[in-house]
Amino acid sequence: MLLRTETSTFEFRIAWLPMKVHAIQTGTVAVKERQRSGTGPGPLRLPLTLAGRDWTDPLPIYAWVIEHPEGVIVVDTGETAHVDDPGYFPRWHPYYRLGVKEWVEPEQEIGPQLRAVGISPDDVRCVVMTHLHTDHAGGLEHFPKSEILVTGPELENASGLLGKVRGFLPHRWPEWFSPALVNLESARFGPFPESLRLTDAGDVIMVGTAGHTPGHVSVVLEDDDRSIFFAGDTSYTERLMIEGKADGVSPDVDSARLSLRRIQEFARHSAVVYLPSHDPASAQRLEERRAVAMPG
Ligand SMILES: [Zn+2]
C-alpha cells in the first residue's frame, strides 16, 4: 500500500516536470540599431538601416534544443566559427560590408555545446530551421544524420545567385544539405492560419511567421501550462514584438507586422514564453518560463 502511494506520487511529479529545453548561445552578433527597430517606408528601410551609424551591443545568437520524449528536436543551428576566416562573407555584398559583425569561437558552435550537455548531434531526430540566414544555418554541418526541415518558400528564396544577393550564403551549406521541404498546411493554430504538427503527441508545432524572410516559421512547444515560442527573427526583443515594430531588413514589412500582430494575439490569450534568437533576455525568460505580459 505504502509502495503504491509512493509510486503514484512519483508519477505525479514526473507528469509535472517541464520538458527540458536548452538555450545554446553560439557566439554574438552586432547589427545596426535600425535593423533591430526599422525606420522609413518599405523600399528605403534596408538602405536606411545600412546607412545608420549606431550599432547594437553584441547580441546573443541562440539555437534551441528540446529534449522531447519522441527524440531530440533542435530549432536553428546558430553560427559557425568560420565567420572569422578571411573571405568567408562575400565582400561585394553591402550587408556584409556595412551591416553585421559576428564573433564565434569553435567551442561555441552547436556541436560541441550539445556534447557538453550529453547529447550527440547524431542523435538529434530533427532540426527545424526558422529561416536560412547565416546566423541560423551556420551550424548545419553538425547534423549530417538528422532530418532537416525547411519550408519550400524559404529554400527557394535562399538558393542560387538571387539567394546570395538577398544575403544568404547557399555556397556555405554542407554538400550533403538536402532538407525535407515542408509546406505548411492551411491548418489553423490559434491566430496562425498555417501550421504543421511535428510530433505524434501534437505538442511541437511549426507556425508560419513570414516577413523577416518569405518562408520564415516559428516553432511552438506546448509544455504543461505554457507555450514556448521559438521566434527566430520575427523580432529582436520581446518589447519590439509587444510594440509591433518590424525590423529594418524585412523585404515585406506588411507581412512582418502581420506576423507580429498574430504573435501578440497568441500571447494575449495564452501563456506564451517568447524567445527571439537575438534577445539578450531570452535565456532568462526560458529558465523562469516567464510568459509575455501583454499590456491592456
Ligand atoms: Zn535572420
What would the keywords be for this entry?
disordered N terminus, binds zinc ion, alpha/beta, 296 residues, 5-stranded mixed beta sheet
Structural summary, described in words:
The protein is of the alpha/beta class. The chain is 29% helix and 24% strand. The strands form two sheets. It has a seven-stranded mixed beta sheet with strand order 4-1-2-3-5-6-7. A five-stranded mixed beta sheet has the order 8-9-10-11-12, with helices on both faces. It is globular and about 50 Å long. Residues 1-13 have low confidence and may be disordered.
Helix fraction bin: 25-40%
Per DSSP E runs of 2 or more residues, the count of β-strands stands at 12
Order of strands side by side in the largest beta sheet?
4-1-2-3-5-6-7
The helix/strand class is alpha/beta
Ends apart, CA distance between termini: 51 Å
**Over all CA atoms, what is the radius of gyration?**
19 Å
Offer a concise description of the structure.
The protein is 29% helix and 24% strand. It contains 11 helices and 12 strands. A hairpin with a 6-residue loop joins β8 and β9.
Task: Give a topology summary.
Elements: H1 2-16, E1 20-31, H2 33-36, H3 45-51, E2 59-68, E3 71-75, H4 94-98, E4 100-103, H5 110-116, E5 124-128, H6 134-137, E6 147-151, H7 152-158, H8 160-165, E7 180-182, E8 195-197, E9 204-208, E10 217-223, E11 226-232, H9 238-243, H10 253-269, E12 272-276, H11 282-288
Parallel strand pairs: 3-5, 5-6, 6-7, 11-12
Antiparallel strand pairs: 1-2, 1-4, 2-3, 8-9, 9-10, 10-11
